[in-house]
Amino acid sequence: MKEAEPGSPSIGGAASVTTTNTSAALNVEEHASTPPASDRHRTGFPKQGGQSMSYWLQQVRCDPLLDHRTSETLPKEADTVIIGSGISGTLVTKHHLETWPSKSVVIVEAREFCSGATGRNAGHCKPDQWRHYGKFEKAYGKAQAIKIMNNESATWKALVAYVQENNVDCDLWVGETLDVPLDEDVAKAARDVFERYANAGGKVDHIKVTHDPAKAAKISKIKGATACYAWQASTLQPWKLTAHIMRENLKKGANLQTYTVANSITSDGSGRRKWTVRTDRGAIACDTVVHATNAYSAALEPSLRGLITPKPHMCNRVVPPRALSGSKALCNSYGVLLADGALFSINPRCTADGNILFGGSNPGQRALDEWVEQNPGNCINDGLADLESVTKCVKDFVNEEFDGWREAEFGPGEGFAYSWSGIIGLSVDGVPFVGALPGKEGQWICAGHHGHGMARIFTAAPGLVKLMNGKEWGETGLPDVYQMTPQRLEKLKKVDVDTPKVAII
Questions:
Q1: Which of 176, 181, 187, 459 could join 337 via S-S bond, C-beta 3.0 to 4.6 A?
Q2: Are 447 and 291 in contact (CB under 8 A)?
Q3: CA separation (Å) from 128 to 132, 138, 472, 493?
């Protein structure tokens, strides 16, 4: 293996290369969210062993749900098999049980319960309320672009309502999230998109906008702010939310089987059922299969090769120093917009422990992306941790932009504690796939969330179950462009490089 050049970041023990900046963009030509043109067909099954431990998973090591198996042996048959136990699979199970209480449901999970993207994200449920309008309008037209924004707002409201109505212990915070451009060109692009969205009839009355840099810096506490956009969003402990829902599912008769890898799906030869889901612990005959494996979908379903691509992404946990805790702690969540489409997603866990989580498309992510392109077998490697190239960008940002950080004294237990990896599922056209798998009667999918699933799945999952129950697409309330159709599938298989690009939020 080639040694890293002096000064270049080391990724997973291999050398990486630095890249030059391109022109400023508002997460439109996003460098960290584009399926690699060189190997868009790469895929793989969940990594078995050696995964990094996310902050969320660290908190629940004694929870028996992690390795729960409802029955000692794998059921030989069921009405429905749901593959994946993240927020998609768990919510599909919830709505399935409510729709068909008498039908049997088995959820198979390759590893620990909810140990994929849901258990590894940065803890945001942040509806995009304007920023991506420009790219969606270009790709799908004004009406669909507005519908996407409205759906994300509806998703956030549905999630918050569920948590509050059911008293879910998941560290829910509801407050103002701030989008803060740090570059004058990015600020101009942001203003242009916002005004075009408003002029098209998009809802903007709930967004507080500040274009004066001095005021924006005061509101955001970010020195280099050139503008500030504020609206309501949430942060939460995503594993705990998903676990609460799954426990309710189990009470209603669902069968959860962790550490059970689904290897293939074939026609059932017995004639009693439509499909056989083959796993490393045996086979389950069933009539309905739901693919809720997000980034891993194409490994199990060949027709999705090139449509959903896995890619590792990093999240950093930072323990603020004492001088910047208590009354001086951050009290908003953030999307910090940088040149070249880079983004810091910041979750300060305001109503919980105050640890600050940095996600999003950190500029240092580019080195990781290039390493994965050179080493494509690592497209599903969520065993990466403490990558210097990513952590350095977080350190540089807080030292430069947050008052007092550079001068603060960090004692033991404070500072840039840890970073971990998760695998995001990049859809080739930037929006998820929801609906029936073409040519596979009885197989359904809710996947390809592009690193933005928490702001989509709470409406996408119940929408999918409505389709499974024979409802028309219009009854789901979802944007039309999310629908999995034979036409969309065939069109995307012919696409090469001219595909819409959507940023990681």
A1: 181
A2: yes
A3: 7, 16, 26, 28
Rounded to whole angstroms, how far apart are CA atoms 322 and 224? 24
Rg of the Cα atoms in the chain: 22
pTM: 0.92
User: Which pLDDT score is estimated for 345?
Assistant: 95
CA distance 22 to 102: 56
State the DSSP code for 129.
-
Domain with 91 in it: what CATH number? 3.50.50.60
Judged against a pLDDT cut of 80, whether residue 501 lies above it is answered with no
Instruction: Check whether 29 has a pLDDT greater than 90.
Output: no
- Name residue 34's amino acid: T
C-alpha angle with apex 158: 156 to 163, nearest 5 degrees? 95
Do 226 and 187 form a contact (C-beta atoms < 8 A)?
yes
* Domain enclosing residue 259, as ranges: 55-119+239-307+429-494
What values do phi and psi take at 267, rounded to 5? -65, 140
Q: How many CB atoms lie within 10 A of CB 463?
A: 25
Secondary structure class of 217 (helix, strand, coil) = helix
SS3 253: coil
Residue 198 in any domain: the answer is no
* CA nearest to 479, candidates 137, 207, 91, 179: 137
Q: In 3D, which of 189, 209, 245, 142 has the Cα closest to residue 26?
A: 189
Strands 255-257 and 105-108: parallel
Which residues are registered as beta bridge partners of 430?
none
Nearest to 98 by CA among 397, 461, 363, 378: 461
Count of structural domains within the chain: 1
* pLDDT higher than threshold 70 for residue 27: no
Q: What is the DSSP letter of 149?
A: H
For residue 196, with 0-12 CB atoms within 10 Å meaning exposed, 13-18 middle and 19 or more buried, which class applies?
A: middle
- pLDDT beyond 80 at 3: no
Q: Is 132 part of a structural domain of the chain? A: no
**pLDDT at residue 9 above 60?**
no
For Cα atoms 247, 250, 254, give the angle at the middle one, nearest 5 degrees: 140
Q: In terms of DSSP bridges, do strands 288-291 and 80-83 run parallel, antiparallel, or are they unpaired?
A: parallel
CA dihedral 83, 483, 468, 302 (to 10 degrees): -40
What is the spatial distance between Cα 157 and Cα 234, in angstroms, rounded to a whole number? Answer: 10
Q: How far apart are CA 147 and CA 288, in angstroms?
A: 30
